[in-house]
Specification:
By secondary structure, the chain is an alpha/beta fold. It is built from 14 helices and twelve strands. The chain folds into two domains: 139 residues, Response regulator (Rossmann fold, 3-Layer(aba) Sandwich), CATH 3.40.50.2300; 149 residues, Response regulator (Rossmann fold), CATH 3.40.50.
Length: 330
Amino acid sequence: MKRRDFIVGAAALATPTLTRAESETKTAKRPLIGILALSASEHDDSEIQAFVEALAQLGYVDGQTATILRSYGNFDVARLAVLAAALAVSSPDVILADTASPIKAARNAAPNIPIVGAAMSYPIEQGLIASFSRPGGNITGVASQVEDMDSKILELMNEIIRDAKSVGLLLNPNATLSELEERDLRAAARKLGIGFEVAEARQPSDIEGAIGKLARDGVSFLAMQPNTLFVGERIRIMELANAAHLPTVSTQATNDLIGAGAFLIYSANYPEPFRRAAVFVDKIIKGARPGDLPVEFPTRLRLAINLKTAKALGITIPQSVLLRADEVIE
């Protein structure tokens, strides 16, 4: 692990004729920026790299004008506490945490260090911030969702599968956001007059049975809750769902679900929120308090459709939907 680098100008010590400003510049330290991510590094290249590149554009070049410490939880929530404690010992100027679990781990380990979230879901309900306009405390950043995303994705699927009868939610009841995510999707289904079924999976061994239950329930498609368990098992989930002829949808583009075989994703336009997170980091390093920086919402949403999966499932995507897609996987 790299340690904070201090730049000490030897000339400032040996030459009394240097101005005060020159002396302060030569003794200035590099900003130290911590990254605490839930997933494994090899799965986070595009998002974390986008953050690092945005920092460089703002003048924070790793190893030159800044030091960046990267820590990855490898989908192990318990491990985050250890990683967060190690970051806290290094006393970074600010910590970038991608989702709720790393944000909470960082806050517990370093309650006085500013934290920027790049994909915050339900941050008020989780007690991460006081309000979107004035977060308070040491946390701010970018929200992962905008209002009515659940309704929109159900509308899209209702347009694609015209005789859609119900949506099935693959739910991990142990996940922090399970109740909130079930509540909002259920409300969206009720609003559109679509049936709603739930199948629970608390561990990997439960997943096959849960997807089998939804298939037997006759749901028209499957909505995947984007929690740690399911993201880590995403490839297996897509294989099981597609084998059961259940197109899978999500409002989170976490770790390239569409590339893993998901049918449709309607989400924030990643990795743009990570680029915006770099702007928050810059402001905080320059003296802004995180509690005074309003949380931003995604300004552009991304509709991604997997035609390969659609073909395998025998589903024809209407041209009206394809024309709205930002990304189409052939």
